[in-house]
Amino acid sequence: MAVTPIAAECNIRLWPTQTWLLMIISCLGFTVIAKHSISVGVWLFNRMRAEKDLVKNYGSWALVTGATDGIGKALAHQLAQRGLNLVLVSRSSDKLETVSAEIQAKFPNICLKIIELDFSGDVSAGLRQIKEVSHDVDLGILINNVGITYPRAMFFHEVEESVWMKIVKVNLEVSTLVIKAVLAGMIERKRGAIVNIGSGAGMAVPSHPLYAIYAATKAYLNQLSRCLYAEYKHVGIHVQCQVPLYVATKMLREITSISRASLFVPSAEDYAEAAVRQIEIGYEAVCCPYWAHSLQWQLAQFVPHSLLDAWRLSVGLRRRSTLHPQFKILF
Ligand SMILES: NC(=O)c1ccc[n+]([C@@H]2O[C@H](COP(=O)([O-])OP(=O)(O)OC[C@H]3O[C@@H](n4cnc5c(N)ncnc54)[C@H](OP(=O)(O)O)[C@@H]3O)[C@@H](O)[C@H]2O)c1
After folding, report:
1. Each residue of 277-295: b (16+ CB within 10 Å) or e?
2. pTM for the whole thing?
3. Closest of 158, 261, 252, 253 to residue 199, by C-alpha
4. What is the CATH number assigned to the segment(s) 119-300+311-323?
């Protein structure tokens, strides 16, 4: 095509600007690709690293909170399989006795203790028992797993104060007190692993509408873990926040009606196997143990926040109207 003198002149004038624009866009593109490639590389590298012997590295006992169901119970089985003695903590003594007997029958060579502690009630006696046990035995691992959420998807203004105060107490206040209760013994022994169970709701997505308080308490656990990781790694205590996305447990069934495991929703047992492997690898402050969750998290980072916000809100609203049609959509 013939170029008129005026157009040619325009092209010549635009050229340096276009070059700079192109260079800036290329640099930005390269930085984004490099950032994601590095995190994928680190993820792969960490999965290939040698596993630590948990008993030798941390101690011969592990304490698991919320050990009577779901992820906590499955983690207790995984740890027992590796020869760790267990302190099981939960709110119901009957369920604790049952789970303890079940694990003892399967792994007769380990020792078990139980501590009844309702995180939403008076916690002083239970915390005292945890403190005592962490001095009496070689407590190497804490799995800080108890966590509760809303009974259904709710706008913030609908959540009764008693409900959100209970979530804050269980997920945030008492979970922090449990860490405090075991830390002194670990510092004395100069070794230990503290594993806080976070949630994708507080980390993998920019927001988790209709579960705001739950998501916020999990974001707290994430940041607390990162800070404690930096504070205590030189003492030999490894603090890690593990981030599950959906896992087929009672909690998930109650809020989503998903009851069957699938590719992206592992069973508690499959999830726990991956979770314990992350303690054995144990180099990251925050990790997403299950591979399919990790993949979802990585992919979510390429999606604009506004789209993820809208998607999460629509999922919450849909669940609310199908599972609880009596609560009409408000806006
Ligand atoms: N499942 C998921 O999709 C998912 C996703 C992300 C994060 N998480 C997190 O993973 C953790 C475990 O969840 P899960 O799905 O395994 O839950 P779950 O099936 O409901 O089990 C929770 C465990 O905590 C105990 N518990 C509940 N309230 C308690 C209280 N007030 N005091 C003491 N113990 C209490 C339960 O005891 P009972 O046996 O008496 O009920 C049970 O042992 C939670 O922190 C949760 O936020 C779960």
Report:
1. ebbebbebbbbbbbebbbe
2. 0.89
3. 252
4. 3.40.50.720
Residue pLDDT, tens place only, 238-296: 999 999 999 999 999 998 888 899 999 999 999 999 999 999 987 789 999 999 999 99
Domain ranges of the chain: 119-300+311-323
Span from the CA of 261 to the centroid of ligand 1 (angstroms) = 17
- Tens of pLDDT, residues 12-49: 556 677 788 888 988 988 888 888 788 778 777 777 77
Contact 107, 85 (CB under 8 A): no
Instruction: List ligand 1's pocket residues with C-beta within 6 A.
Output: 66-72, 90-92, 95, 117-120, 145-148, 170, 197, 199-200, 244, 246-247, 249-252
271 counts as catalytic = no
Interatomic CA distance for residues 5 and 293, integer angstroms: 58
